[in-house]
Amino acid sequence: MSQVIAALNRDHANITKLLKIIESEILAIAVGKAPDYPMMRDIMRYMAQHSDRFHHPKEDLIIAQLLKCDSVIRADVESIIEEHVSIRLAGLEFSGLLGAPGIDSVDVREQLGACGFAYIRALREHMLKEEKQLFPLALEVLTHKEWEFIDGALDAIDDPLFDEMNADDYRRLYRLLAERTEVCA
Ligand SMILES: [Fe+2]
Ligand SMILES: [Fe+2]
User: Fold this and answer.
1) Hey, CA dihedral for 151, 17, 63, 57, is it positive or negative?
2) How far is the CA of 107 from the centre of ligand 1 (A)?
3) Which ligand is nearest to the CA of 84?
4) Residue 173 near residue 43, CB atoms below 8 Å
5) Which protein residues have their CB within 5 A of the ion that is ligand 2?
6) In a 10 Å sphere around its CB, with 0-12 CB exposed, 13-18 middle and 19+ buried, how is residue 105 labelled?
7) What ligand is nearest to the CA atom of residue 60?
8) Model confidence over 60-116: pLDDT tens digits?
């Protein structure tokens, strides 16, 4: 298998774990428990800054090659690009609420739950679409030479949370993730 596809599948597995943590925190709010807001903010910061910075560039390597294909394939690929934009905006809206004044008010908590669940659902559906449609399509239509080019560009991209576990910015998040491994399994 292409190194990039393997790396993307690993990214999706890690993102899935983080989404489960956010989901469990939102569910805690719904039953009147105190959520771990700092952890939720850390996760969303990771999603916004680093998933975009390290995950999408890998997908962009594939997308750039597929955009050279026929119009039917291009239409499918363009829908993925549009989802990257809409999910990023949904993430920003959710992150904004996590930093909002009056976060413990009923109104803000209700908004937080609605936005959080919408973000989680959109990202899960997007990853499923990539795994079931985009990646198989790429594996079917791209040439050996194109995969060599894509895999050759992968070395420049790494991930500070999951590939360099001691990165200072995400040490706390990694520790919390490790503590919640059973929840995420
Ligand atoms: Fe994506
Ligand atoms: Fe993805």
Assistant:
1) negative
2) 31
3) 1
4) yes
5) 130
6) exposed
7) 1
8) 999 999 999 888 888 889 999 999 999 999 999 999 999 988 787 878 888 999 999
Q: How far is the CA of 52 from the centre of ligand 1 (A)?
A: 9
| pTM score | 0.86
Distance 56 CA to ligand 1 centre (A): 6
Give the CATH fold of the 3-184 domain.
Four Helix Bundle (Hemerythrin (Met), subunit A) (1.20.120)
- C-alpha 140 – ligand 1 centre gap (Å): 18
